[in-house]
Specification:
Low-confidence stretches: 1-25
Order of helices and strands: HEEHEHEHHHEEHHEEEEEH
Helix content: 40-55%
Number of strands: 11
Radius of gyration: 23 Å
Distance between the termini: 47 Å
């Protein structure tokens, strides 16, 4: 027996053991994101993912995040808005998703925000923009002024819902959409609305009953999700702005120009990846 060989083997075993114990058991690989644009950052300012994040593109119904943000600044939650035939026609003519509102219904701003964000109702966005411009043109001017005030230099809005007419709803970037989401989430009412899976409005003398379900399938699929918003047009593709709490930090991300189901799966992967990076320090 060679004593030197025994000591050498033991040393190798110790080194192998140290190497194995120090490596993460289930390290999450950096996701291979298929979306055309993507960006993920946490509340400490750490960027976890970026892909063509400064390219100006249409963002479909993610526009409604700004609509909600402006409404929350302009309105009282208890204000009542009367739905008009023009609100219904706006959604119908554009083939848009709706909150199934009807002419003559009177709903609070709080409820209309749910109708705006969960089923992505273009009827709700039209009503809110019409009232809190007042007039849609004035409301869009407020959206653009707010974007400038918030430092969203690569964002411009042409409507309150991201519909194709006019000019594809304007444009933004993945970076600007994440910045806007981070600001919007500072309002607890916005967070409550954006994170709701379902919102029910009981029938009253002012309106019929409504049940609105969130189009964001990420809710309930992973822990700590705060929402935020889905979107789709032919020009924008499938979009998703999302947020969740991970190890004491808020992680916010966006996927633009993606496919329908993949955006939710990849958002989960990106949240897992960011969470592991935060945990590792």
């Amino acid at each position: 027996m060679h004593i030197g060989g025994i000591f050498a083997s033991a040393a190798v075993a110790v080194l192998v053991g140290l190497t194995s114990s120090s490596a993460p058991a289930h390290a999450t690989a950096k996701p291979d994101v298929g979306a055309k644009q993507a960006y993920v950052v946490d509340s400490a300012g750490t960027i976890h993912y970026g892909k063509r994040q400064t390219k100006r593109v249409p963002v479909a119904s993610l526009v409604k995040v700004m609509t909600a943000h402006v409404v929350l600044r302009e309105a009282k939650l208890t204000d009542t808005v009367t739905i008009t035939a023009a609100d219904i026609r706006h959604a119908a003519v554009n083939g848009a998703t709706t909150a199934a509102l009807r002419k003559g219904e009177r709903l609070t701003v709080r409820d209309l925000l749910y109708g705006l964000m969960l089923p992505s109702g273009a009827d709700a966005s039209n009503a809110l923009a019409r009232v809190y411009g007042p007039g849609k043109k004035a409301f869009i001017a407020k959206m653009n002024a707010t974007a400038r005030d918030l430092g969203l230099a690569d964002t411009r809005y042409t409507n309150a819902d991201g519909l194709p007419t006019p000019a594809n709803g304007g444009y933004s970037t993945a970076v600007d959409q994440v910045k806007l989401a981070q600001i919007a989430l500072k309002n607890p009412v916005f967070t409550q609305v954006a994170s709701a899976k379902v919102h029910k409005v009981a029938k009253s003398g002012a309106h019929r009953a409504h049940t609105w379900r969130n189009t964001n399938k990420l809710l309930g699929r992973t822990d700590g999700v705060l929402g935020i918003k889905t979107g789709y047009t032919r020009a924008a593709g499938f979009c998703l702005v999302f947020a969740a709490e991970r190890h004491g930090r808020q992680v916010v991300g966006v996927l633009l120009g993606d496919t329908n189901e993949r955006r939710f799966t990849q958002a989960e992967e990106l949240l897992d990846y960011a969470g592991e990076q935060i945990s590792a320090g």
